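TODO from last week: model F-actin-capping protein subunit alpha.
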Amino acid sequence: MVKSCSAFVCTERNTEGTEVHFFRFPFGDPARLENWVKALRRENFTPVRGSSVLCSKHISSSYIIVRIGKSIVSCRDVRVILNNDALLREGASQAVAAYNKRQLTPVKMEDGSYSLITEFNDLGGGRFVDPRSKTTFRYDHLRKEASDYQHWNPDPLSESWRQALEHQFRAYGSDHYKNGHCAVFSKSEGSTVILTACIEDHQFQSQNFWNGRWRSIWTTSFDPHGTGNAVLKGHLMIQVHYYEDGNVQLQANKEIKENLVVGSESATAKDFVHTVERAENDCHSAIAGSYQKLCETTFKALRRQLPVTRTKIEWANLASYSIGKQLRNQ
């Protein structure tokens, strides 16, 4: 069910894909609940359990510590232990910053496009670079918002290679990752060009009790004036969590190393993406095969060997059982 923020004149709604987080009113803590209602300053307002929510635009950033899927973990208990709000804000910011970079967190840019928060575009001091738009920006790791955009000059040696790869890589991402985002970063060290391509795609289906995320990082380095092959290294990370009446998780990591033919910028980009596509398709197929085998072996072994009567059912003589007679009569 779509819910709207309870704050006065706020139009935020918890629709799928929104970057704004939503918090339920703390009905389990009457004192905090009273403070929330007073802070809203809405005359005759009474929150409704299960439907009233506030969006993150009206919640102090010191309240939020980490986001996993659609769940927000409060740092209220940590605050009691530390008894130092300044230390808590500093520690939470560092922890969430490291988490966001590991998760390749998507960030909406000024022009409406998306980039990724990673270690590869981290300039330090809370600033990141989006090479596609040639801008740097300050990123709030707690609110997941970009601001303070500034012009950025790309690396002259590697930029043309990055642009060629980005063109091919974004087309690949659009074809294979419906809700995903990708980014390509580059730098040079001496005469060596280093290219890094990242993909992040996720589905957070809290209403259906499951969340999932795909991340992949592909890196290569080569001398653009040389000829021959380079090494393309990939790191695939898959997480799936299903938690309806149970707790089933999949966490898979795969390291890949392939040869990359270095030619022209366009040809190298095409071979790069072709290699990525083949490797990621193989990984998808392997996981699907593993789950099929899991259903046919492991899960089957967990089933009850005998019915509650402690007697095996002779399926060939099903008609002799009462249920078989009932079915036959129908």
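Done. The first strand starts at residue 22 and ends at 24.
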